[in-house]
Specification:
By secondary structure, this protein is mainly alpha-helical. The chain contains 12 helices and no strands. It has 2 domains: about 60 residues; about 150 residues, no CATH class.
Length: about 220
């Protein structure tokens, strides 16, 4: 129990320091989602701490993902009229994106001759962590492997989004929010809130809709496979 509390404190301190660093130097590679995992891995390696020992406290932080996801309802309420106005565009864009994410994840594994269990672990990578891990377990995947791919997708999407938005000259808050919420789920939504409350609200609803659509698409994928 003591070691668990210590690792909670270390994780929170690393996060706070990383946020300050990112605020002063807003580079993607200094984002807390990049810096904190690396710092924690270094600390665990240096102290010889096992994953099981870290999870005595780290699992408590993971449990906070669910109420944090529910808290996204607040900005959704504040920007209800904006969401209502662009509902059709958001729903159609996210639905198509979710379908492509599931299908492409499965198709990309074909040349690698991946096992069905590994494919099932990768397919839910484009939705937020708590739901992705639950879906993975339901369809026969490995939740811990799914978590890794969710993190990689979130970080990769957050890294690519600014350059993609500049290249495509995307100006609207709705388009930016959908891109970040669908393409990089939680990490993208966090970045969207840094850009503005409207972008954050759109990203939040896109992330939620993506999870719902993915839950509907995955059974179809299982039947087809």
């Amino acid at each position: 129990m003591t070691s668990g509390i210590v690792w909670i404190a270390i994780t929170v301190i690393c996060f706070r320091l990383a946020r300050r660093l990112h605020a002063r130097h807003p580079k993607w590679y200094l984002s807390p989602i990049v810096v904190v995992p690396i710092a924690i891995i270094v600390c665990m390696t240096a102290t010889g701490t096992s994953v099981a020992a870290y999870n005595r406290g780290g699992s408590l932080l993971s449990d906070l993902l669910q109420p944090a996801t529910v808290a996204f309802a607040v900005p959704l309420y504040k920007h209800y009229e904006l969401l209502k106005k662009h509902a059709a565009a958001i729903l159609s864009g996210v639905a198509l994106g979710s379908f492509v994410a599931v299908v492409s994840s499965a198709v990309l594994m074909l040349p690698m001759h991946a096992s069905p269990q590994l494919v099932a672990s990768i397919v839910p990578r484009s939705i937020t962590m708590p739901i992705a891990m639950s879906v993975s377990q339901t369809i026969g995947g490995i939740p811990s492997v799914t978590a890794i791919f969710v993190i990689v997708t979130g970080i990769g999407g957050s890294m690519a989004a600014p350059a993609l938005i500049r290249t495509l000259r995307i100006r609207g808050s709705v388009a930016k929010g959908v891109l970040l919420g669908m393409g990089a789920h939680g990490a993208g939504t966090s970045l969207a809130y840094e850009w503005g409350s409207e972008e954050g609200a759109i990203a939040s609803v896109s992330m939620i809709v993506a999870a719902v659509v993915t839950l509907a698409v995955i059974p179809l994928w299982r039947v087809a496979s």
